[in-house]
Amino acid sequence: MPALLSVEVKEPEESFVIGGFTAYHTVLLAYLLSSTVVKATDSDLLAAYSYLYMNNPGSLQKFVNLEILP
Fold first, then answer.
1. What pTM did the predictor assign?
2. Of 16-20, 41-45, 49-53, which range is least confident?
3. CA distance 39 to 37
């Protein structure tokens, strides 16, 4: 697959614009899809995570094995 993507570009200016447009809309679509799923499931997971992160990071580290930056 990478060999198919690594060909010489005939029109770099046009390809750059198309790539930027595609990348922007792909990220936008991923964000909208993920926020729609969270809203549709009526989940409070993100609110609970944010609350623990801001108010009691020690308790959060019991559940999540990531280093919390100050």
1. 0.52
2. 41-45
3. 5
Distance CA 35, CA 42 (A): 11
Q: Rounded to whole angstroms, what are the CA distances from 26 to 5, 18, 20?
A: 18, 12, 10
Tokens 């029109």 locate to 11
How does residue 6 score in pLDDT terms, banded at 50, 70 and 90? Answer: low
52, 60 contact by CB (below 8 A): yes
Give the 3-state DSSP-derived string for the chain, with helices as H, strands as E and coil as C: CHHHHCCCCCCHHHHHHHHHHHHHHHHHHHHHHHHHHHHHHCCCHHHHHHHHHHHCHHHHHHHCCCCCCC
Tokens describing residue 62: 């019991």
